[in-house]
Amino acid sequence: MAADERDYNLTEEQKAIKAKYPPLNKKYEYLDHTADVQLHAWGDTLEEAFEQCVMAMFGYMTDTETVEPMDTVEVEAEGHDMLSLLFHFLDEWLYKFSANEFFIPREVKVLYVDRMQFKIRSIGWGEEFSLSKHPQGTEVKAITYSAMQICEDEKPEVFVIIDI
Question: Residue 58's Cα: distance from chain center in Å?
Fold first, then answer.
């Protein structure tokens, strides 16, 4: 399923918000997986693939083009290798949504990746999720390590299964 195939049945107000901003450059897709969904994201750099993976996760929960860049949130994560770094990076972003903040980004930018110490720092522009403003997609319950992959052969790409 391509990134733009999720139908959120937007209201006129949601369509108006979408029209205010340029369309997002989506470099991700959703792959079918038994009872869960697999995110496949890519970019010109590994940092961009990580950014796109976060946006794919949030794009499954709502139409991120209805999100306005009103606030910024910083997310840092660390791991013991690149796979655990990706896992914790996504998990920290999911926590920003699931905890008190209910923050949903319109855009995420990786500011820094340390591939030796396995640390990452990022920033997101967005706002608090509101059912009256944002269409409801599918709740993401958790990130999983199942079949997680980071490929850097030709174009950097990542595969992550999320529990829905």
Answer: 5
